[in-house]
Amino acid sequence: MIDLKGKRALVTGGSRGIGAAIALALAENGADVAITYQYSAEKALAVAKSVEKTGRRAVAIQADSADPEAITRAVSEAVSALGGLDVLVNSAAIGHVGTIADLDVKQYQAVMDINVRGPVLFAKAVIPHLAEGGRIITVGSALGERVPFPGITTYAMSKAALTSFTRGLSRELGPRGITVNLVQPGATDTDSNPANSAGSDFQRSLTSLGRYGEPREVANAVVFLASPASSVITGAILTADAGAIA
């Protein structure tokens, strides 16, 4: 077990899927956790209750990751509820399927606002609250590094941007002893990409392990990067994709 006792974490998009698994894993290892959600209040409260069952503090905060004012408010509420912040996990994201030729500009902007601008603005709001040993961890995608089929260009480019964000921010915050890292999941069994979907066999065929990942497996990578065990790791990309881009 990794010891995160006394740590306070904010997980964006923590009401379901990978974000929910991250929130619970952080709590099981000793951290108090705030999560943000946009629509799923019931699911967010269920995650908060699961966190509280581990003996840790929890708070669910409604916030649209495409809204700069909501981001600032969410960080303020998390700091107030937990007494500060030590870890930010940027997990909130939306998907997009479609070709550039048929691109809807509003959909494109929504993807960029949530998947790229959201992590940047959450980091901006959290940085003043982080002390030495602080952590910023962003959940990207292996599709940001390799695009193995058509129709996912917009989503892939939004995730590719997170690599430069991670590396650049690590240079900015390194002198303060704060690390910044990126976790890149591959196909992961969630509501948005279930392992029994129509295209799941093809996605499995791209991997070395021949299977989907589980949300908890991605969460384990985040917990490691949030812990003192990763103290020398920053500006790094940890890919958890069952070998899809090997």
What would the keywords be for this entry?
alpha/beta, single chain, 7 helices, 7 strands, Rossmann fold, 246 residues
Can you give a write-up of this model?
- This protein has 246 residues and is an alpha/beta fold.
- It has a single domain, classed as Rossmann fold, CATH 3.40.50.
- It contains 7 helices and 7 strands.
- It has helices at residues 17-28, 41-53, 68-82, 105-126, 153-173, 200-205, 215-226, and strands at residues 8-11, 32-37, 58-62, 87-90, 135-139, 179-185, 236-240.
- It has a 7-stranded parallel β-sheet with strand order 3-2-1-4-5-6-7, sandwiched between helices.
- β1 (8-11), α1 (17-28) and β2 form a beta-alpha-beta unit.
- α1 (17-28) packs parallel to α2 (41-53), α1 crosses α7 and α3 packs parallel to α4 (105-126).
- The model has no long low-confidence stretch (mean pLDDT 96).
- This is SDR family oxidoreductase.
- InterPro entries: KR_dom (IPR057326), NAD(P)-bd_dom_sf (IPR036291), Sc_DH/Rdtase_CS (IPR020904), SDR_fam (IPR002347).
- GO terms for molecular function: oxidoreductase activity.
- Keywords: Oxidoreductase.
- Belongs to the short-chain dehydrogenases/reductases (SDR) family.
